[in-house]
Amino acid sequence: MLKVLVTGKNRKVASDICDHLEADRGYMTVKCDPVRSTLFDIILAELPKVIIICLGDETKETVEAYNVLKNAVKQGGCTAIVIASEDDEKFFMKYTELSRVLFLSRPVSLFALYEKMTQIEEELKKKKENNLSMFREFINEDADSGRKRILVVDDDSEQLIHIKEQLEEFYDVTPVKSGEAALKYLLRRKPDLILLDYLMPDQDGPQVFRQIRSVDEYADIPVVFLTGMTEKETVIQTLTLLRPQGYIVKPSRKSEIVAKIIDVLG
After folding, report:
1. CA nearest 224: which of 153, 133, 143, 123?
2. In what side-by-side order are the strands of the sheet with 28-31?
3. Is 3-131's fold the same as 144-265's?
4. What does the DSSP assignment read for the chain?
5. Which residue from 18, 67, 182, 260 puts its CA 20 to 30 A from 109's CA?
6. Would you say 96 and 21 are in contact if contact means Cβ atoms under 8 Å apart?
7. How far is the C-alpha of 225 from the C-alpha of 264, rounded, in Å?
8. What CATH architecture is 3-131?
9. Alpha carbon distance 69, 40 (integer Å)
């Protein structure tokens, strides 16, 4: 079943699109407000194959909020469809950082939309069938860029977005929102460094740190705590017990984070 994220300031069009996709096509739709942190959370949690953006009374700031979707679109994981008037389309193109977008004019042609969705379904099905064929492709992601890989663990979506935007010029950055998600990531891939939030619900930074250090395979991964000023003294005390590779006080400047990473990784 195709999972579709529908967002945008034109809430009426967004609601109509959701109703039609669910009733006519049986798709699983997820509707959310066009807020940067909300979009970021939905992408991480739902992994939609299609993103439909219904433009309305947009501003430069609201269009830039959609830029949080750029990695999902760039990596080929999902298709972005923007429903817009001619003026909305020009305004969107002026400020967007999305690398590939399909535009659909208002009023919406459901026939055109369904035709494109069918095409996407067929492409996904073909890709799945190819994966089950005699030939099985292996892509060594550890050898593709030569860039250091940073895992960022923080329950604050805005903080994750902020750090990712600061570092992605120099590093491959993967953001996750909990210690549990970080440990699942480590089962698949070993980062060069972990930026770990000190205060988090469920499992705090020190608890996650101890779990990471308890596994021999992960014991040599450098860990740097992210901490607010209010708990700085507590973190310093913790450093003497856990012996991570240091800490960074939030909010932090790009130069401070990069300098710390260079200090740790060389």
Report:
1. 153
2. 28-31, 3-7, 50-54, 79-84, 102-105
3. yes
4. --EEEEE-S-HHHHHHHHHHHHHHH--EEEE--S-HHHHHHHHHHH--SEEEEE--S--HHHHHHGGGGHHHHHTTS-EEEEEE-HHHHHHHHHH---S--EEEESSP-HHHHHHHHHHHHHHHHHHHHHHTSS------GGGSS---EEEEE-S-HHHHHHHHHHHTTTSEEEEESSHHHHHHHHHH---SEEEEESS-SSS-HHHHHHHHHTSGGGTTS-EEEEEEGGGHHHHHHHHHHH--S-EEEES--HHHHHHHHHHHH-
5. 67
6. no
7. 12
8. 3-Layer(aba) Sandwich (3.40)
9. 7
Instruction: Express each pLDDT in 162-212 by its tens digit.
Output: 999 999 889 999 999 999 999 999 998 999 999 999 888 888 899 999 999
- What does the pLDDT look like over 212-238, one tens digit per residue? 999 999 999 999 999 886 766 777 777
From CA 69, how far away is CA 43, in angstroms rounded? Answer: 8
| 65 contact partners, CB below 8 Å, separation of at least 6 | 34, 35, 36, 39
For residue 133, count CB atoms less than 10 angstroms from its CB and return exposed for 0-12, middle for 13-18, buried for 19 or more.
exposed
| Nearest-angstrom CA–CA distance, 187 and 24 | 39
Of 41, 71, 65, which Cα lies nearest the Cα of 53?
65
β-pair partners for 175? 152
In CATH, the number for domain 144-265 is: 3.40.50.2300
**pTM metric for this prediction:** 0.76
Tokens of residue 27, six digits: 């798709």
**Who's near 69: CB < 8 A, 6+ residues apart?**
39, 43, 51, 80, 98
CA distance 264 to 32: 39
| Cross-strand pairs, 179 | none
The ranges assigned to domains in the chain are 3-131, 144-265
